Amino acid sequence: MADILTPALGESVSEASIAKWTKKVGDAVKKDEVLVELETDKVSLEVVAPADGVLAAINAAEGDTVVPGTVLGSVSEGASAPAAAPAAAAAPAAAPAASGGASIEIAVPTMGESVAEGSIGTWLKKSGDTVVKDELLVEIETDKVAVEVSAPAAGVLTIAADNGSTVTPGQVIGSISASGAAAAAPAAAPVAAAPANTGSAQAPASAHLSPAVQRVVSENNLNPASLSATGPKGNITKADAIAAIGAAAPSAPAAAAAPAAPRADQPREERVKMTRLRQTIARRLKESQNTAAQLTTFNEVDMTNVMALRAQYKEVFEKRHGVKLGFMSFFTKAVVQALHEIPAVNAEIDGTDIIYKNHYDIGVAVGTDKGLVVPVLRDADTLSLAGIEKGIGALGKAARDGALTMDQMQGGTFTITNGGTYGSLMSTPILNAPQSGILGMHNIVQRPMAINGEVKIRPMMYLALSYDHRIVDGKEAVTFLVRIKELLEDPARALLDL
To answer: Of 7, 354, 453, 494, which has the fewest beta carbons less than 10 angstroms from its beta carbon?
Structure first.
């Protein structure tokens, strides 16, 4: 008998809730097959079977709260072979049954790591319609990705989940009655043959555009007939539409004036349910405000020397390292050196203890269309400028693609956020708990400055350091920020370790 245990849930996560069991007691299971999904306030976790056998017991029902090490159930080892045999024997019998009128279920596919639920978009067919195999039926939207669901077979569609319904992986959202497939196939054959002879002009018909694709096409004034289709049965995917945006850019100005007139059917208000990611962001930020004694100190930095250095070497740097030289690498280097000198900013409070970190894992706040995430650049003190730029670039791409793992989002010791990319002049960042410091970068603005008794125009940036006053004193916070200012205004200091 092998126990199914709740795994470690990640840093600062002490409990989870049972979201869904994928098997029931008595079902045959294989080693590493997903048995249960757990939800935490950060991510969703999958718990797999520890061995081949039969699911003998379920000790925690859906909705129960569990902690790491809790026994969720057990697997009776070595019983999978007898259990699998009947299933295998039944498989051949199922095939004739399907042709004789059985229904084939349409299930929600796996929607990506840590994605526990999604919502039904708009069905492209209605109940009673005849569909062909691999025809796009509906798109399921999650807080990270959009998943297209196609027909698993030809037949007559029956819808079991309405538009907007919340669904989970494996849930049945409809079925296809194969009894209608035989009758529908001969009738559909001449119709299907006609578009095949007309080439790709018929492939991007509006009826075959999913809601997400239609939105991209409409917002960017794309012509569906000009898009290359890579989806099943020649359907245009969201990736196809996004890839065509750049090519369609020259025609955008001409069409930009068209939507100037307000729409008469535009509602004055619209209520939209918060995504799970947005709810988590809201909760954690408020918890941070309520827990830490947050205070912000400001300074400004003259970016003249960093900008000059970057302008001088950016082309050679990119040719040599294959990545552009940005400002984040300079700031990360300066932050790491300042953290070495002021260790309290690289520490955290745990009850009545202070934990001083001797590693420098820098969180980099990334804004995505789904919300703010903070992936972590590991061991930043060991990286060169090129290594920092490559690491941040890879994390940013993963964040925007919704492909970040739980390991990439936990364990940071200090965070940098750059509101300047959006034009922010000044802000007071909120701490990323349980860290005790966060640096806010802002827009670089040409301002008149007094330099050696003369007024000169210099590229200036305001810096903001928010810190936990329970552990970091004002003197330490100000010294930390001044140190960053010194290192940025004279980049040679960092190279010479001065």
So the answer is: 453
CB 173 within 8 A of CB 138: yes
CB atoms within 10 A of CB 42: 19
List active site positions: 469, 473
Q: Name which of 84, 94, 69 is nearest 14 in CA terms.
A: 69
End-to-end CA separation in angstroms for the chain = 62
Q: Which amino acid is at 359?
A: H
Buried b (16+ CB within 10 A) or exposed e, 241-278: beebeeebeeeeeeeeeeeeeeeeeeeeeeeeeebbbe
pLDDT band at 126 (very low <50, low <70, confident <90, very high): confident
Q: What is the C-alpha separation between 61 and 71, in angstroms, rounded? A: 12
pLDDT, one tens digit per residue, over 247-280 is 555 444 444 445 555 566 678 888 887 777 778 7
The dihedral over CA atoms of 444, 448, 454, 459, expressed in degrees to the nearest 10, equals 10
Distance CA 154, CA 132 (A): 4
- Whole-angstrom Cα distance, residue 213 to residue 134? 17
Give the three-class secondary structure for 155.
strand
Taking alpha carbons only, the member of 8, 37, 11 closest to residue 284 is 11
Q: In this structure, are residues 108 and 173 in contact, taking their beta carbons and an 8 Å threshold?
A: yes
Q: What is the pLDDT of residues 382-423, one digit of tens each?
A: 999 999 999 999 998 888 887 888 788 888 999 999 988 888
Using CA atoms, how far apart are residues 103 and 461, in angstroms rounded to an integer?
Answer: 64
What are residue 415's DSSP bridge partners?
363, 438
276 closest CA partner among 45, 42, 65: 42
Strands 362-364 and 414-418, sheet pairing: parallel
| Nearest Cα to Cα of residue 181 among 235, 133, 126 | 133
CA torsion, ordered 24, 30, 31, 35, to nearest 10 deg: -20
Q: Are 74 and 27 in contact (CB under 8 A)?
A: no
What are the CA-CA distances from residue 356 to residues 10, 353, 473 (Å)? Answer: 19, 10, 15
311-320 pLDDT, tens digit per residue, is 999 999 999 9
Structure tokens at 488: 């940025």
